[in-house]
Amino acid sequence: MIAGREATAGELPLVPDLAVAHCCLAWLAPYFAQDRLCQRLINMHRKFRGFSSRRVRSALKQEAASKRQSWRSVALRRYGETFHKRCPVTGYTEWLAQVEPGAMPDSGELVAFLADQRAPVEFVMRLRITPQNVAGALPAVRSIQAQTYPNWRLIVEIASELETATHPVVASINTLAGEDSRLRVVSGDIPQLYADQRTTVTRYFSELPASGRLSVHALYFAAESVMRQPDCRIVYSDSDHLNSVGGRESPLFKPGWNPDLLLAYNYVGQWCFFRWDLLQQLGCEFPAGENVTNYDSLLRCRDTVPAEVISHIPQVLYHQKQLPDSEQQQLNDAERRCLTSYLQSLSGGNVPVLQEAWQSPSLPGAAITRCRWPLPQPAPLVSLLIPTRDGVDILRQCVSSILEKTRYPNYEVLILDNQSRCADTLAYFAAVQKDKRVQVHRWNHPFNYSAINNFGATLARGSILGLVNNDIEVITPDWLCEMVSHTCRAEIGCVGAKLYYGNDTVQHGGVILGIGGTAGHSHKYVLRDAAGYMARLQVVQNLSAVTGACLLLRKSVFEEVGGLNEKNLAVAYNDVDLCLKVREAGYRNLWTPFAELYHHESVSRGADDTAAKRRRAEREAQYMRQRWGEQLDNDPAYNPNLTLIHEDFSLA
Question: Are the CB atoms for 472 and 597 separated by under 8 Å?
């Protein structure tokens, strides 16, 4: 380990101004070295997740035998893969060459799939051609005709301003339509083409932008997804962009269904399929209706279509050309109108208000919005639980920042003292309780983060609980207003904040399941003002978990799931476990970038730097794998094409 990171194979780390006071090289027993290698593969390599060391050795030996290579060479190659990093921008060309081809079907798979289709699935797409987009329409049509899955129909709607007989692009499309009965050209409004819906065919409908191109296997993957999940209502995929010379760049590896992210921008994109019966419920024949975007239909599905019947295909199946500025602005304006109309249609007192909009460098051209949820009146009491042991300086900074900077009007601070002995700390306890908002409660037992907070929850008078580490420092006065506004939403469970290290780099942008074997923090160490991958450091979104260093949830939800697991998770992962129990109970967890705080991480507790602490950490990680293993490897808020080794959204 040099300068805080491990060097990859064949790399000579350049570490300027490094002084080594002492160096000792020791021989390691081969079995010990093999065990460490296997343990890293278990923690960091997708192929070996959940394996035992013995099973890893067996798998490596089988792979070596099949490739007629030595066990050592195969093991070291797999080990080296756990250090490799592909940047989402510069590493995409390498990803396209090395990773994507392995996911594509061969001719035998295609033939077998088509032969196995007992009930055919048909995909119906609409392409609307206007004078503004006509130049790029022909390649879009050809990308449909090139599909390896044959059950499709394309309706090309020609704007009345175009001379269908003389325009060369329109004439070419008419010629193609004469050669292929699946392609139909119409002028003006589309007639009710599918009123006589055949019961033997399941149809999915989509818009095809004239600037879009489909991967040759796009409809095959869509059909395969539907066959695996027959009750599927919406299907969408990952996408990328085409540059001026047709090269692929800027991939968008999207999360699964994410209702709160959808309020920030249309992350699903313009190409996605809706099942026919869902469109009938929405009252339209195609997802965009008369609009230029499908965003309105997607928004109307937020509260009515469960995530279980929405399929996200983690393959780059759609390629988007950069729109001219005028068309991009038209699209942004239309989506803004869709969001405004959707918010106005919501009923009840807890309706969000559309606030500012901006553009992000990580989403070229797209407009991002913030929806602000109102606080209930009167504001509910929030009980902030702060476990501590001595460390009076860091505790004083935490409590003072809360009391002096927090704008929220109704909260109490419960300091949970775990056997403090320092005279300065005890004196501070006596002094700080002069503020009526602060109480100190003694918990005279060995350190157990879960048990301490469970104890604090029994003392809390508030309807909302806040888990707050004693090394937290408030930055933004509205942090608690923002978090409470989401916590009070009936569908929301745990709410997390955006946390920074003292040097203004990101410490917590949410928790991503599976990183490092169990869970890791999103965008760790990036600069404070960084937009993040797909602007995800700038927007409210649903995540599977958030850190307990600053976490809010309703007390009723906390009690419903049994609080924190003090038996199996005394120190680590108890916050992730809590979030997963809350999600299992049917709530959505949420992270907001508009509550910002410093987190001087683990200043009070220290590191796992003893054999006993390491054994405890291993037991807790093992429990998480046993309890949540399958979910840890399939985080719907992430994407399987992104790394589980690093915390920076680099490519797998």
Answer: yes
From residue 413, alpha-carbon distances to 323, 493, 568, 651 in Å are: 52, 21, 27, 42
Residue with tokens 């000579």: 12
| 5-14: average pLDDT | 38
pLDDT beyond 60 at 607 = no
Whole-structure pTM over 0.70, yes or no?
yes
Pair 211, 136: CB distance under 8 Å: yes
Cβ–Cβ under 8 Å, residues 247 and 148: no
Cα angle 617-620-626, degrees, rounded to a multiple of 5: 140
Q: What residue ranges in 337-489 does DSSP mark as E strands?
A: 353-360, 363-372, 382-388, 411-417, 438-442, 464-468, 472-474
The first and second tokens of residue 128, run together, are: 């609307």
Segment 121-136 shows an average pLDDT of 93
Neighbours of 461 (CB within 10 A): 11
User: 153 with 223: CB under 8 angstroms?
Assistant: no
Average of per-residue pLDDT values in the chain: 91
Cβ 437 vs Cβ 400: under 8 Å: no
Q: Where is 560: in which H helix or E strand?
A: helix 555-560
CA distance 450 to 387: 10
CA–CA gap between residue 361 and residue 446 (Å, rounded): 48
